[in-house]
Every structure is written in C-alpha cells, then in structure tokens.
Amino acid sequence: VASSLSKSRYIVGLQCAKRLWWTVNEPDAPELTVDTNAVALNRGRQVGELARQHVPGGVLIDLPTWELDARVGTTAQALADGASVVYEASFKAGGGFASVDILERGRHGFSLIEVKSTLDVKIEHLPDVALQAHVLTSAGLDVRHIEVMHLNRECRHPDLSNLFVRERVTADVLSLLPEIPAKLSELHQALDGPLPVVEPGPHCDAPYACPFKGRCWPEQAEHHVSTLYRIRAKKVAKLVAAGVETILDLPEEFKASSTARRQVQSVREGRVIVEPGLGKALAKIKEAIAFLDFETIIPAVPAWPGCGPYNQVPVQLSCHVLEGGALQHHEWLADGPGDPRELFAGALIAACEGAETIVAYNASFEVQRIDALVERFPDLGRTLKKIRKRVIDLLPIMRDHVYHPAFNGSFGLKSVLPALVPGLGYEDLEVKDGGTASALLEALLLGGETIPAAERPEVRRKLLAYCERDTMAMVRLYERLLALAAANG
Ligand code: SF4
Q1: What whole-number distance in Å separates Cα of residue 58 and Cα of residue 71?
Q2: How far apart are CA 397 and CA 394, in angstroms?
Q3: Whose CA is nearest to atom 7 of ligand 1?
Q4: Along the 489 residues of the chain, how does pLDDT read in single tens digits?
Q5: Residue 11 beta carbon below 6 angstroms from any ligand 1 atom
C-alpha cells in the first residue's frame, strides 16, 4: 500500500472507502479499464496548455506521473533556483502526494492554481484543491492564495484573451484543511485492512458515478418502480421501503401522470397501448416528409467566430425524404478544422427543399441549432426560419399516444426503436450512440492528429452510418405508428 495518497485516490476515498480499496487493491479490475476517451484527454491537455500561457514564463515539471520522487526533486530544484512560476509542481508530504497545475510565487508567499475545464467552480473541486494545499503546507510552503482557474462563459472567439477566470477559493479551502489529516489516516487504515463495509446509497453517484456499482447494487427486477416515467428518486425510495418493488405491485390508488398511467396499464396487460388520438396527431405530418437529425460537437475551447466555451455546433446531418413510398437520403459531414456552420446551413436547406413537413425526434435540439444559424447568418434567416416552422416533433406524439412494455419508462429513440421496430437497432454499427459520435466528430475536426489521416475515411464512414441510422429509425417508427393508428381505428 502506498504511503502517500495521490489527489485522485484521496477524492475516490472521500466518496467511498470501499471504492478506494478496490481501486488500489485491484488495479486491473475490469471496471477500471478507462475507456480511452481521446477527446476528454485532448481537451484537458489543450485547456491546461492554454492556462499556462495565461500565467506565462514558468518551468514545466515534464516527467512521467509515476516518477514521483524525480518530480518532487525537480520541483524543489526549480523553486531553489528562484522560478517564479512552476507548472505541474509536485510535492509529497503530510501523507499525500500532489501535482499543482500552476504554482505562482508572489511577493509574500505562493498562489496555488488549479485549472479546471468547467465554466464555474464546483463544490467537488474544493476537496481536490484542499488536498493539494494540505500537501504543500505540510512540505513547508507558504501558500497565501488558492485559486480555481476555469473557463469563462463570456469569452467569444476569436478573442481568447479572457478565456479563463481566476477565482479565489482560499477561505473555502482553508476551512477544509483541519479535517484532512484525520481523513487521510482513516483512508490509509482502510487500505491496510480487509474490504471496508459500505452500504450502497446516493453517494455512489455523487459527485461521480462509481464504476463498481455492478458489484454493490442488486440487480433490479423487471419493471422496477424506478422505471416509472419521470418518477423522482425520493418517491422510488418511499415505494421500495413500503415493499412496492415493481410497477405490478403499485396500489390501485397510486397517483401518476397520464403517461405513467398508460405505462402501468401497458405493463399490467403486457401489450402495446395506443390512444385513439394517434391518427389525428400523425395527420399533421404531410408528404414530402424530411426526417432530420443533427450531430454536434461542444468544444471546450471556442474554435469559430462568435462561439464561447462549450457552445454546441452542428457538424453533421442526415435526412431521409419520404414521398409516395420512395425514400431519398441526404447527408453532410464537415471536413477539417474550418468553420462548418455556413456549409452546414447550405446542406440543411438543400436537404429540406420541397419537404412539406420536417420530422425530428426530440426536435428542440434541432430547432435550437437552426435558431443559432439564423442568428449567425441573417442572409439565410428567411429560408432557415421556413424550415424551422415546418418542424414537427415525433417524440411527444409517441409519448402522448403509445406505450410498449419494453420502453422501460423512456421515450428516447434508443428505447422505443427496438420495442416497436424489432430488427432495426444500432448493434451492427460501430458508433452506437450520440456521445461517442460527438467525441469522434470533435477528434476528427479539431483533434489534430488524434485520429491519424489514414484512419479518417473509416471514421467518417462509421459516423455517416450512425447518423443515417437515426433518420432511418424515424422513418420506420413513423410507418409503425401509422400502422398502429390504422389498427386502432
Ligand atoms: S457502488 Fe457505492 S458502495 Fe459500492 S464501491 Fe461504489 S460508491 Fe462504494
């Protein structure tokens, strides 16, 4: 067992001693195989490097993380040589080990600066910074100021001079220091003993989702009450405490929204429930119908004019146009790091041309992106607004009229598709969800060499296949809804 706890292990231990125990004693546990999210790594690296440019002229402790002693020694040497700023300054003292993103020497002591890729200081940042402050003060450093340096939501490309905000958290962090030595020794003791006994509870998801939930949480029964549409965690806890485990056990007088009531009925009767108004709701959708889906990226560091940190930018679309039983497919995917928005808007206009109705699933997502394009390109405003006006959202039509027992309380495309259109899923694709698509798109367009040039055509193919599946799914769902409406008169 290590004699010094690193910052990340301390944070894990604060959440749960059992999680820490498994993390340290089973480093090869399958739960700990980090999915190599190149984008997240790249993002952290990019933000870290830009942060250093905002506090320039420092010495970087450029040694591998596992060479603890060498890092500590090089840091001590840099400080002895009078460095005014040290990046990745490393210390080992007081039972802990910490690398400080930026250590700045002032006239009266040091400023400890922790860089975060967030838009605010978050409560969970404080124990993390507190451990660093504890290690530094234990090492004899005079730490006067403690700061979190985070991204600034007011910043707009191309002016990145105000990309960061430096926020002082000295008082908040100092108030946490007294409890750290006891906590550290408690965690060291826990690590020296057998697996700690910790009951699973809300702490398993706060502030971070624990990877070991599969070991601690019992498998949920089918139609568990937690799958009831939009039920709150508190209500679930109350029901479970009263012995109500599944939707089938709910008492007759249980109060629920009309959607949840439809779910209960569907689960009890083991069949699809279709409301009589479905046909009327679908009648608003008129041919030619463009089934539309966007994929977006959300870069931490703004890349294009007018964008701020984490602005969502559409970079890919798929559109299936249905008319007279025939389907036509349009698709567009940005290429390279240039601003994709105007070309995207052009591709959108071309794809929707001649469509009477534009169908999206959870359409507010597409509508918001179109609104942003209108703002950005006033010349295209009229045409884009016409597109926006013709958008109909298929999700509320589904939610208000149809329930299949296999929806499990969710109306997301990925939940309703396998239930209503068996055989058409995402399993045969390499990119199976929007999060993966967004990460790959960001790597492809802004990640430099994150994806080598030779692999890019293949990545593009996978992304195109994924987005195409989303709109094909909508076409098949729409057809299935028409059939359900016809069968239910
Ligand atoms: S699932 Fe909960 S109880 Fe189990 S190790 Fe994780 S945080 Fe601890």
Answers
A1: 15
A2: 5
A3: 204
A4: 346 788 889 999 999 999 999 999 998 888 887 655 666 677 788 899 999 999 999 999 999 988 999 999 999 999 999 999 999 999 999 999 999 999 999 999 999 999 999 999 999 999 999 999 999 999 999 999 999 999 999 999 999 999 999 999 999 999 999 999 999 999 999 999 999 999 998 899 988 889 999 999 988 899 999 999 999 988 998 999 999 999 999 998 899 999 999 999 999 999 999 999 999 999 999 999 999 999 999 999 999 999 999 999 999 999 999 999 999 999 999 999 999 999 999 999 999 999 999 999 999 999 999 999 999 999 999 999 999 999 999 999 999 999 999 999 999 999 999 999 999 988 899 998 888 899 899 989 998 888 899 999 999 999 999 999 999 999 999 999 999 999 986
A5: no
3-state class percentages of the chain: helix first, strand second, coil last, to nearest 5 = 45, 20, 35
Nearest-CA residue for ligand 1 atom 4 is: 216
Please tell me if the CB atom of residue 21 comes closer than 6 angstroms to any atom of ligand 1: no
Residue among 12, 21, 198 whose CB has most ligand 1 atoms within 8 A, to mutate:
198
Atom 3 in ligand 1: residue holding the nearest Cα = 200
What is the dihedral sign for C-alpha 404, 417, 391, 393?
Answer: positive
17 lines ligand 1 (CB under 6 A): no
Task: Look at the alpha carbons of 422, 322, 278, 228 in this order and tell me if their dihedral is positive or negative.
Answer: positive
Ligand 1 pocket, residue 212 CB under 6 Å: yes
DSSP 472: H
Verify whether ligand 1 is closer than 6 Å to residue 213 (CB atom).
Answer: yes
Q: Look at ligand 1, atom 5, and give the residue with the nearest C-alpha.
A: 19
Please name the residue whose Cα sits nearest to atom 2 of ligand 1: 204
User: 465: Cβ below 6 Å to ligand 1?
Assistant: no
Q: Given the structure tokens 């509870």, which residue do they identify?
A: 201
CA-closest candidate to residue 410, choices 305, 295, 260? 260
CA 139 – CA 4 distance, rounded (Å)? 13
pTM of this structure: 0.88
168 lines ligand 1 (CB under 6 A): no
C-alpha pair distances (Å), 212 with each of 217, 220, 227, 451: 9, 16, 21, 31
CB 32 near ligand 1, within 6 Å: no
Query: In ligand 1, which atom is closest to the CA atom of 17?
Result: 8
Rg (CA), the chain: 27
Instruction: Please write down the long-range contacts of 4-8, taking CB distance under 8 Å and 24 or more positions apart.
Output: 4/68, 4/92, 4/95, 4/96, 4/97, 5/95, 5/96, 5/97, 5/184, 5/187, 5/188, 6/96, 6/97, 6/98, 7/96, 7/97, 7/98, 7/99, 7/128, 7/131, 7/132
First to last CA, the chain: 69
